Amino acid sequence: VFSLNEPDQNGISSPSAAADWYVQWINPLAIKKALPAISYSTNPGQGLDWLNSIINACTGRCFANLHWYGNSFPEFQNYIIGAHNRFPKFNVVITEFALQNPSGGQSAQSAFFRRAFAWLDAQPWVILYFPFVATSPALLQANDGAAASFVGTGSTLYNNNGSPSAVGNLMF
What we know:
globular, Asl1-like glycosyl hydrolase catalytic domain-containing protein, Asl1_glyco_hydro_catalytic, 7 helices
């Protein structure tokens, strides 16, 4: 189960309050679970800093869920390795990731994901990953214009006609 989405942003929840909520409502579920998905922010008190705080507040009763948006595969790889090095006892789940509106559009996203998927599959501590976003370009633009502007529509997993996109075909 995945729970809170980027609670480290805009003071949505303190790590302590999130840990209390998680332990009360998520821990009792008899299924695999991940900590709230953090943003990729490098601002103090956000991103990996926030994750570190909730892990400390959970005192061993929780586990790591990441988001990432950036400009290159090496940047992505460094972030994921950095998270693993910082929290080596935890498996890693990445529930959103993509290049940030690359100039090459869908072909640049496809090349990035092809490389990222191969690398992620080779990391025994990465147990799940999900590219952003499981929709079509038209639906992303209609329902989340900010995301379409920020990431672009090249990472969508479907074409407007419902068939898998170039990125979506990488998932098969």
